[in-house]
Amino acid sequence: MKTNLSQIEATKAWPWSARSIDWLLTKPEEGEQFIVLGDSAGLTKEDIDEKVRRVKGIVQVEQVVMTMLSGGSEPTDVLYLMEENALLRQEIGQIKQKLSELEERIPEEKVIVLREISREKAKKEIRQLFSNERTLYYSDIAEELRLDLKLVVDICHELQESGEIGIDDRVL
Amino acid sequence: MTEYYKLGDALMADRIAVRARDIDRPRYGQGSHRHRILSTTLRGSAYCVIELPLKAVRERRQ
Fold first, then answer.
1. Minimal Cα distance from B51: which residue of A?
2. In DSSP terms, which residues pair with B37 in a beta bridge?
């Protein structure tokens, strides 16, 4: 897809040093050559969008610069601030990425409100859970029936002693 | 089944189910042979039960 970037009035922007404009317009990946405005040079739509965003940034900065210059600031200060701003943005991006990686590693919290039911009712429900010959750990039963783990273990021992349930040797 | 209450009583297994009023955030460490190992502490009404005994115990049982 060819797109004419000349529609963006970047040429009217403040005459930045060639190095700064190079740095703003080139792709972040290594090895990519500088691409002149007005030629998409086979770039993808995402690349072009990214460049448009950067050029718009230049135009915005120009307005800030003009304001600052009228206040007595030097252009070199502005260039320094621009570079620092870009570095900080890059660092924020890296931090965001690390944060999302960390968030993925944190196990999801699941809230289970335990039910307070009679021992007999709990026993009946556990019996029912085993009715279709499922293999369940104590924690599976406690989670599924929302019962206290100790109560589940006690009831399972009772059921085991009465021969209603047994240990699945396939799991062991 | 036996229940242990005394200071220093320990459980060893391949799978232990736990419940407590509060569970500390897991701490990451390095076990033997560069295996990642996690540790935590249960606080208040802590209860632990073995769900899957150690492999050696399971084999002995069979």
1. A137
2. B29
- Contact criterion met (CB < 8 Å) for A149 and B49: yes
Alpha-carbon distance of A61 to A14, in angstroms, equals 9
Contact A150 B17 (CB under 8 A): no
Query: Domain-by-domain residue ranges, chain B?
Result: 15-61
- CATH number of the domain to which A146 belongs: 1.10.10.10
Number of domains in chain A: 2
Q: Which residues contact A97 (CB under 8 A, 6 or more apart)?
A: none
The answer to whether A19 contacts chain B (CB < 8 Å) is no
**How does pLDDT run across B2-40, given as a tens digit for each residue?**
899 999 999 999 999 999 999 998 888 877 677 888 899
- What does the alpha-carbon distance between residue A41 and residue B41 come to, in Å, rounded to a whole number? 59
Of A69, A86, A105, the residue that ends a domain is A105
Interface predicted TM-score of the whole assembly (ipTM), two decimals: 0.82
Q: Are A18 and A52 members of one domain? A: yes
How many inter-chain contacts (A to B, CB under 8 Å) are there? 30
Q: Given an 8 Å threshold on Cβ–Cβ distance, is B19 in contact with A148? A: yes
